[in-house]
């Protein structure tokens, strides 16, 4: 067992072909509650619809059984949250590379009519090949579900419209979160503060603290954080500004500093996950999608909050 939470457990398993996988299960007693079971199925559907270089594939799932589950390759990689905690603020070039990969992932997500709604460093894994966006637990699927109502997300990375609890969200909400992620990586701190009240107040007022943000990132970050969703760039536009040609596949693996390489290597060379690193991300004919370790969160503002009818995260 890799971990356990209020909604279920995650197990490290090996299939008959030797592939290391993570199997995320829902507690049986919760599976008896139709809203929670529907929420788990929602997460799986969202994951199965996305195909992109910077996401992680779903291999199999059963959302109707007594113990609903989904299986994904076990990605032996730290999160960007771990990276920034380990390395502090990142160099602008690395932020651009990581940000471009995340933006390309968002483009793939948005192309399927999905809004992630909880993009943050803890939900992005860093592999040797680049970032991978994970955790679709509270994603809004435009064409499959009723629009989400009530706040769902993480305060420190939420858009103003999420805080206003509007009935529907657009891809622009994820772009706002991406702007916050870029600032967090480049500054080594949140641009909105630490405690929840100040975070919410700053986001609503449109007043991030970007002192010290490198000039080459400042304009783009401010555009992503614009209070008006209509005036934010698209994920495709963000990727192109950060690394020209990224959307067309011209994005090299990030050049990591020594401390970051050490962190990635420590995760990638663990005996139980070595096969996952070499096989899971290259196994053909599997529609790419996310899995998720439970993140360690430092403050209330960094904690995912879901609406009363929100699915498992």
Q: Which characteristics define this entry?
A:
313 residues; alpha+beta; Phosphorylase Kinase, domain 1; Transferase(Phosphotransferase), domain 1; 2 domains; 5-stranded antiparallel sheet; 11 strands; globular; disordered C terminus
SS strand fraction: 5-15%
Extract low-pLDDT stretches: 273-299, 307-313
State the strand order across the main sheet.
Answer: 1-2-3-5-4
Major sheet characteristics: 5 strands, antiparallel
Radius of gyration: 18 Å
How helical, in percent, are the residues?
A: 25-40%
N-to-C span? 18 Å
What is the CATH third-level topology name of the largest domain? Transferase(Phosphotransferase), domain 1
What CATH architecture of the largest domain would you give?
A: Orthogonal Bundle
Task: Give the helix tally.
Answer: 11
Write the layout of secondary structure elements.
Blueprint lengths: L2 E2 L3 E7 L5 E7 L1 H4 L2 H16 L10 E3 L6 E5 L6 H8 L4 H20 L2 E2 L8 E4 L2 E4 L6 E2 L11 E2 L5 H4 L7 H17 L8 H10 L9 H10 L10 H8 L15 H11 L5 H7 L23 E2 L8
Antiparallel strand pairs: 1-2, 2-3, 3-5, 4-5, 6-9, 7-8, 10-11
Helix pairs in contact: 4-6, 4-9, 6-8
Descriptive report:
It is a single chain. This protein has 313 residues and is α+β, with helices and mostly antiparallel strands. The protein has two domains: 3-75 and 270-280, Phosphorylase Kinase, domain 1; 80-263 and 297-305, Transferase(Phosphotransferase), domain 1 (Orthogonal Bundle), CATH 1.10.510.10. It has eleven helices and eleven strands. It has a five-stranded antiparallel β-sheet. It has a two-stranded antiparallel sheet with strand order 6-9. Strands 7-8 form a two-stranded antiparallel ribbon. A hairpin with a 5-residue loop joins strand 2 and strand 3. Helix 4 packs antiparallel against helix 6 (171-187), helix 4 runs antiparallel to helix 9 and helix 6 (171-187) runs antiparallel to helix 8 (215-224). It is globular.
